[in-house]
Amino acid sequence: MSALLAVTRLEAFYGASQVLHGLDLSVARGEQVALIGRNGMGKTTLLRSLMGLVGDCRGEIDFAGRNIRGAAPEDIARAGLALVPEGRGIFGSLTVEENLTMAARAGRDGRQAWTLTRIYQLFPRLRERRGNGGHQLSGGEQQMLTIGRALMTNPDLILIDEATEGLAPLVARDIWATLGVIGGEGIATIVVDKDFRSLAKIADRAVVLSKGTVVFNGPPGELMAQPELLERHLGV
User: What global pTM score does this model have?
Assistant: First the structure.
């Protein structure tokens, strides 16, 4: 598989505090990557850096043959990246359908595989709630809406921060199934979640961060076979 995303020597700072330290990462087209590590190790900062949301980044971020490091977030989104942020970030004053349609656009190559109809097929609950305001949804419904909104941009790569945090087990199961569908569509993903065992079932590769650097990069099964590494960096 050819590289869709290539990150080289990435550093990220919040004022005088450095969070990422010369990080290298690549993602192939259609690949699902589990991004894991303890709290405060740089996972969210990495995703935000890829989306142009961290003001002081250094290094190279090549996406689909273009260096996007330093580009505006809206330009990065148009280039084919989509973010499902921690906390979801939906518009509570807009209806479900308005939240979805405001994001609708063709993909970088003009494709329009993901439409409102398609999102409702993927998430029947959103169809039932399409006239409700975002503030009226449960946490699980909000997460479905945020993922659906990202898909409406027809992206090449989706960044998902805390995919199932705070969700009931049955809802979390539905989200994992959805991520499997997304992967089957050829959309690459970088997924952050504390439930590594569930994430490992759908991921092609696991990347572990510790103090802003990559300490493991390989098949999930290989990581699962190293309990001392899991304990040291994940506490599981």
Answer: 0.94
Strand partners, 208: 36, 216
Which of 61, 49, 40, 60 shows the shortest CA–CA distance to 13?
Answer: 49
Task: Single out the residue of 30, 54, 19 nearest to residue 209, CA to CA.
Answer: 19
* pLDDT one-digit tens code per residue, 89-134: 899 999 999 999 999 999 888 889 999 999 999 999 999 999 999 9
List strand residue ranges (DSSP E) for 37-124, in order: 56-63, 66-67, 81-84
Cα-Cα end-to-end distance for the chain: 31
* Cβ atoms 172, 195 nearer than 8 A: yes
Phi/psi at 197 (5° precision): -65, -40
Q: Could you tell me which of 184, 221, 215 has the C-alpha nearest to residue 199? A: 221
Closest to 5 (Cα-Cα) out of 87, 111, 84, 76: 76
Question: Under a CB-based contact definition with an 8 Å cutoff, are residues 187 and 156 in contact?
Answer: yes
Question: What is d(CA 100, CA 102) in angstroms, rounded to the nearest whole number?
Answer: 6
